[in-house]
Specification:
434 Repressor (Amino-terminal Domain); mainly alpha; 5 helices; elongated
């Protein structure tokens, strides 16, 4: 795998990981507050279909939508930056170095 391809895959990995982390946090908050998709969609004035697609990562995830979801549950995100994890093993498995 060329270095440029590896860099693109690494970037994609971190993008997808962030989306997964956000949707998992939203799902956990929904569970803790006893809110289901139907209730949340109604509170946000969006379709259940759209909300389900967002939670499955089938639509373009954006921070505004994630924020709107948390706002509808009277919650907020707490973010922190950290050193990127080493994903070399992942790339070795899929045909990296």
């Amino acid at each position: 795998m060329r270095k440029s391809e590896k860099k693109k895959l690494k970037k994609l990995y971190f993008q997808e990981k962030l989306i997964l982390d956000i949707t998992e946090l939203i799902a956990k908050t929904m569970d803790e507050k006893g809110i289901n998709i139907k209730i949340l969609a109604r509170k946000m004035n969006v379709s259940q279909k759209y909300l389900k697609e967002f939670m499955r990562g089938e639509t373009d995830a954006n921070l505004r939508m994630a924020s709107d979801i948390m706002f509808a549950m009277d919650s907020d995100f707490e973010l922190e930056a950290k050193e990127a994890e080493n994903v070399s093993d992942i790339f070795n498995i899929i045909g990296g170095e």
